[in-house]
């Protein structure tokens, strides 16, 4: 494969072995350094009313379903802001970029007189650490 001249006897074979060892170590470092995305499922999220906003015109209630405790308030606030900006269409999947995670889910808007309910159902959570959590419905 490669031709190495034997100029100094054992010394050149020692150098060749050192080069091969270093190359082998570098190759294994590159192979094992490739991070793979970890995917997990969860079945038990938190459901509840996260935000209530009342004005003279209407009352808006933002509820989250299948949420995680440490990001639910941040995501609910961003859902509220998107609703006020008229960026949410009912029964469509939306993506919300939070502080700790990016959440994908479905938003359902219900109106009755001056009451508006915005329900956000978590489907996936992409954490900043690289972990992807997918909500799996309970069976039975």
Briefly, what is this?
This protein is of the alpha/beta class and 140 residues long. Helix content is 26%, strand content 41%.
Give the tags.
140 residues; alpha/beta; 7-stranded mixed beta sheet; 2 helices; 26% helix; rod-shaped
Please bin the fraction of helical residues. 25-40%
Shape: rod-shaped
Low-confidence stretches: none
Number of strands: 7
List the helices and strands and how they pair.
Blueprint: H1 10-32, E1 39-42, E2 46-54, E3 59-67, H2 72-84, E4 92-97, E5 101-112, E6 115-127, E7 132-135
Parallel strand pairs: 1-7, 3-6
Antiparallel strand pairs: 2-3, 4-5, 5-6, 6-7
Could you please describe the fold and organization of this structure?
- There is one protein chain.
- The N and C termini lie far apart (63 Å).
- Helix content is 26%, strand content 41%.
- It has helices at residues 10-32, 72-84, and strands at residues 39-42, 46-54, 59-67, 92-97, 101-112, 115-127, 132-135.
- By secondary structure, the protein is α/β, with parallel strands linked by helices.
- The protein has 2 helices and 7 strands.
